[in-house]
Each structure stands twice: as C-alpha cells, then as structure tokens.
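Hey, can you fold this one?
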Amino acid sequence: MKRLLILALALIALRVLPSSGAAPQERQVSSQTISPIQFCPRSQQHSINLTAPPPQAATPYLPDFPTTPCSAGWEPNFGGTTTDRCFRHTFTWKAPGPECRCLSGELTIHYKALQGGGPGSSTSVNDGVGIDSGGQVVPGTYQPLYSGTVTTGQTGTKTIPLSCDLLKNNRLSFYVQDDTSVTSATLHVVYCCSSCPAGQVEETFPGTNLKYCCEGKPGAPRFCCTAKERPEGQ
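Sure. Predicted structure:
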C-alpha cells in the first residue's frame, strides 16, 4: 500500500496521473521539468580492460596506419630489439551492450629506449606516440616519449586520456617511433549502461524509489517518459 501511495503522489506532483478509467499510456513531460542525466551512477558503469601482450605479436588494423614504413620497416612484436623500426598495434573490443554509451578511455604504454642520445640527435630521444586512424595520426594526439638526454635501456610509461570520439568504432590504433621498443600496452574504456531503452536516460523522482526513463536528446523540446518502481532497499 505504501508503494502505491508514493507512486500516486509522485505522479500527481507532475500532473501526469491518468484520469479514472483511462488506459495506461505514455505521458509527455515538459523538458523544463525534467533535465537529462549528465552523469552515470557507479552501479551502471562497466569497464573494458585490454592488455597486450599476449599475444606477443602486434595486431595492427592496417587501414588505420600510414603505408610508408620506417627505414628498417615495421616492428612486428612487443618487446622488439631492432632500431629504426616503427611499431603499430590495434585494440578491438565489443561494447557491453546496445544500451551502453562511452564515458571515457585511457591508453597506457610501457616502453624502452633502444638507442640513447642527447636532444636533437637521431636516437630514441626524438621518438613519440600517436593515435592513428584513416591512414594518419589523429591531429592533437601525438606526444613525445622522452625529455632531455636518453640512455640506452631507459624505460618509461605514458598514459594518454582518450575521448569517446577516438573510441567510437570499438577500435583504437596507436603508432610508436622508431628507436623505441613497446614492451606492453593497456586500454581501459568505461561505459555507462542504463536500464532504459537506447536513447533514454534514467532519473529518480525526488524522495522516492520511483525510476523513469527520459529521452536524452540535446535540445529536445519534450521528454517522453516511462515510469517504473525500484524495489525497496535498492
């Protein structure tokens, strides 16, 4: 009885309570009353974590990369030992579900200098990493791996925050020059997976356990909502 009373009061407050005898139906609520969610509750967050190696061999998606190799060609493996070889690798994955939307991503690479040298020299010191797509480096993603003088065997770690635009094809390709060995790489992608239908977000009526799903289209003049009650204690 208490649940039904809370539900009725919540609907009355929004002036969407159906009249006596009316069949249940979708109700339109002004977007001035309900705002789309701009965050994701922790309980709806799902992460994908990919690490390589294994396998030891890199798995590049070739259309993402330039066709011109470095002077000694391409390094085929993680942990390579030959200088003047560029390294390329692609992570691929499946989203947790069709109702999930990307929140953020992060690429971390661990690497080792194969040829020490000072600033301005043609050694590991001038190497960098970039995100590649469509046969070229994505503008704004290239980053140097070292600063100052580098010694042979010097190790490092680089973590690159990723926008969802870079992850929209469930694929991420990266490219590392040329006197540097990539020893491992990890990709971390966070999704928000709503219990609402695709294109809608979940809200809560204040002071109740009543949940409703609303269209989350930016600039939409109205939101079409479907209400449901969350069990007590959740």
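The chain has a mean pLDDT of 79. Let me know if you want another pass with a different chain boundary.
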